[in-house]
Specification:
The chain is an alpha/beta fold. Helices cover 32% and strands 24% of the residues. The strands form two sheets. The chain has an eight-stranded mixed sheet with strand order 3-2-1-4-9-5-10-8, with helices on both faces. Helix 1 links the parallel strand 1 and strand 2. The protein contains seven helices and ten strands.
Length: 201
């Protein structure tokens, strides 16, 4: 059983999906499975996902009809084997120590809602802009201070966090498949309700 299941919903992102997958496979932390959920893509995304599943045994691919990102993430959770869950979007890519840093943090703070910083990148200029970096070091907060993470721009995202699978299962935390916007905010807040504190990395 892998330590971490990384779930990536994929829909018509043939321009970006290889970069996304490569960045995950190059992680310094190796004990993970990568679950790619092809959500009825019309481009070459499915073909690219299949290529990587043949290239690396940690990659598992599932092909579904188009049901939306929330369905895909929920499906990925249901198919996961890891003790912890992480998410990545198919047009994103991650630093090589993304898994390692979040995994080390959740081992130290297992009852916390753990979140890291991120950047937006302009695909034309390649300019990187920080979604405000939290701190140089770990910040430990009471969960009533959630507003601090809101002000820093990535509180509601699911792709900069690590989640305990046992809490997701115990409290039946799911993405709302009726919402097309803000579905990750609802999921992350439902998870926060079952945590004792907030840790910003």
């Amino acid at each position: 059983m892998p330590k971490i299941s990384i779930i990536v919903p994929v829909y018509n992102t043939e321009k970006y999906i290889s970069r996304c997958i490569e960045s995950i496979l190059k992680q310094t932390f190796k004990d993970f499975e990568l679950i790619l959920i092809n959500d009825g893509s019309k481009d070459r995304s499915a073909e690219i996902c299949n290529f990587y599943s043949k290239k690396d045994s940690r990659v598992r691919v599932f092909h579904n009809d188009n049901r939306g990102v929330s369905y895909s993430r929920n499906y990925g959770i249901s198919m996961s084997n890891g003790k912890y869950i992480m998410f990545c979007d198919s047009d994103d890519y991650v630093a090589k120590d993304w898994c390692e840093e979040l995994y080390k943090t959740i081992l130290k703070y297992p009852n916390s809602w753990i979140s890291c910083c991120a950047y937006t990148i302009n695909n034309e200029s390649k300019k990187m802009e920080g979604i405000e970096n939290f701190t140089e070091k770990i910040t430990y907060l009471d969960k009533s201070d959630y507003w601090i993470s809101v002000r820093r721009g990535t509180s509601g995202a699911c792709w900069n966090k690590i989640f305990r699978k046992d809490l997701i299962d115990k409290f039946n935390i799911k993405f709302n498949e009726n919402h097309e916007l803000g579905e990750d905010v609802e999921f992350t807040i439902d998870y926060l309700k079952e945590c004792d504190s907030i840790v910003l990395v």
